[in-house]
Amino acid sequence: MSESHVVGVDTGHTGALHGADHLLRAFAAELGPDAAVSGCTHHVRDGLRPHTALSFALPSERAARALWQRLTRDGPGRSGDAPGVAFGDERHGPGESAAGAALAAAEHAARTGGRAVLYPGSGAVTGVLTVARLLEVCAVERVAVLGSPEAPSPETLLVTREHVRPEWREGRLVLVAMPAAGGTLVPFEVPDPTPCCADH
Predict the structure, then answer these.
(1) DSSP character at residue 111
(2) 128 - beta bridge partners?
(3) pLDDT tens digits, 23-61
(4) What's phi and psi for 174, nearest 5 deg?
(5) What CA–CA distance (Å, rounded) separates 105 from 6?
(6) Angle at 69 between CA 68 and CA 70, to 5 degrees
(7) How far apart are alpha carbons 67 and 50 in whole angstroms?
(8) Per-residue model confidence as pLDDT tens digits over 97-146
């Protein structure tokens, strides 16, 4: 994948992951429909309480700088507070939140952590498709089957349930899946019963 410039954001979100997904999509939407942005959620375990931070990878430093400037000027945060924001060596916001933002940005930039919500080709990953097709149409680089050391056959069917959240692991975007009925696979992460952002 090409070089990207990563901005971390920590609003102190402590709710369910679908809420973090909604927040991430809301931030991304403000960048405009043509913005080539990838977005991840990150578990932050440091500080007073565990919560979820966000990261955004943009294709140019100019685009990342524009996001940084918007967020440090008027970004929404927990209870109206300014969020923590990190870009490169720069930090903004309350200390704990800025540290969470820096952690998210560092994991995404190094591709060692992060649950991808927006990624190249994510809009094409719907319905039922083969593992080979999944790897062809989006940025997912590997499918790992829970409890199996072997990779699935390229012809194995994946039932996406319209909810595919791969994770960065050792530089690769990996989808963890589990066996399902009829020899198919489903993503390990179960979608929320009332899907967030269903109209996106």
Answers:
(1) T
(2) 159
(3) 999 999 888 766 789 999 999 998 778 999 999 999 999
(4) -120, 130
(5) 6
(6) 95
(7) 25
(8) 999 999 999 999 999 999 999 999 999 999 999 999 999 999 999 999 99
Residue with tokens 């200390």: 95
pLDDT, position 79: 43
Question: What pLDDT shows up at residue 145?
Answer: 97
**d(Cα 90, Cα 74) in Å, to the nearest integer?**
17
Q: Which amino acid is at 106?
A: A
Please tell me the distance from the alpha carbon of residue 3 to that of residue 60, in angstroms, as a whole number. 8
- Closest to 63 in 3D by CA, of 6, 123, 122: 6
Evaluate whether 93 touches 82 at the Cβ level (below 8 Å): yes
97 contacts 11 by C-beta, under 8 angstroms: yes
Q: 56 with 37: CB under 8 angstroms?
A: yes
